[in-house]
Amino acid sequence: MTGQQRRFSLQILEATMLTFLAGAIGIQAAPPNRWRAAGGNDTSAILQAAEHQFNSGNYGNAITTLLSAVSQNPGNAEAYYWLGRSYYEVRDYDSAVTQAEKSVALDPKNSLYHQWLGRIYGGKADRDRSFFLAKKVKKEFEDAVGLDSSNVSARRDLEEYCLDAPWIVGGSKDEARQQVEAIAVIDPVEGHLARAVLFEADKNSAAAAKEYQEALAAKPKRIDPYLEAAHYYQGQGNAAEMQAAIQGAAQVDAKDPRLAYYEGVVRVVSNSDLGTAEEYLKSYLATTPDRSDWPSHAAAREWLGRLYEFEGKRAEAAEQYRSALRLDPGRKDAQERLAKLDKELH
């Protein structure tokens, strides 16, 4: 389960309210008596504070805050949901599973909770290489879709699971196609994106590119389709189309922090204006939290490594690859590039 991470979206709170709450209660969890003063037995203020910490990348603080919330109100499903997501971000999959399962047990009709439990099972299944858990991933995605047929992101999770998983744990291209057709009826732009993923799985890059072009030709009002297309063109090494997708994204929201990553990467892909590329990538690393639904800091480090290789700075490149691997040991390209550089440097 990796492809879905570029698409996951958070529930963003209104900035003014978050700023107020952050100032009112601080980043660290406040003592229980202070929570009571803020709202009695109502945990809504605590949850808003935790979401602010989560969205800022302060996952450890969010966990502390949320544990305070559940100690006061152990029947609050939303608190367990955010606890599960917070533990997921720090890759504590065992704790994430425990908390996410509690959210589903308390609110079994909530499509989003089932969807995220599926994603969390996926993280643990990947780590443990567990077929048993992999089957549970699919079930949770199916439950999420069954509870809310309009939950397009759950349908896309289910599609990608069916494409990526072996048949013995429920992988099925036919089922993936069924999800694509259902998605296209609900949201034509998402339908093009889902169909592109299907064509990618079939290694039909021309058909996939056509679907991305049609998605962007519809001029979606959301930024995510543009960034998803940019991610695809990044993998294809197509700097021109990647730049066009980035420009479309900037027209939707020029302040989206993810643009710094893509502006840096597209220059490395084209091996041009590398000084500006370095500035963009370093800015992304310095100003954004490392989130599972955004380009990872490990990826940004790896692209910095490639940039330094282009510039002939082999020692600097090697250090960026090491940093990327400390964040994500499974990055094969970084492993290979670092091994080659280590031979050259020694």
Keywords:
346 residues; mainly alpha; Serine Threonine Protein Phosphatase 5, Tetratricopeptide repeat; 19 helices; globular; disordered N terminus
Describe the structure concisely for a colleague.
The protein has 346 residues and is an all-alpha fold.
Structural write-up:
The chain is globular and about 55 Å long. It contains 19 helices and no strands. The chain has 346 residues and is mainly α. Among the domains are: 107 residues, Alpha Horseshoe (Serine Threonine Protein Phosphatase 5, Tetratricopeptide repeat); 103 residues, Alpha Horseshoe (Serine Threonine Protein Phosphatase 5, Tetratricopeptide repeat), CATH 1.25.40. α7 packs antiparallel against α8, α9 runs parallel beside α11 and α18 packs antiparallel against α19. It starts with 14 loop residues before the first helix and ends with a helix. The longest helix is centred in the middle third of the chain and has 18 residues.
Radius of gyration: 21 Å
Structure class: mainly alpha
Overall pLDDT = 89
Order of helices and strands: HHHHHHHHHHHHHHHHHHH
Calculate the terminal CA-CA distance, rounded to whole Å: 36 Å
CATH superfamily of one domain: Tetratricopeptide repeat domain
How many strands in all? 0
Give the strand content: under 5%
Number of helices: 19
Sheet of most strands: none
Shape: globular
Q: What's the CATH class label of one domain?
A: Mainly Alpha
Proper CATH architecture of one domain: Alpha Horseshoe
Q: Which residues sit in consecutive blocks of at least 5 with pLDDT less than 50?
A: 1-41
CATH topology of one domain, which one?
Serine Threonine Protein Phosphatase 5, Tetratricopeptide repeat
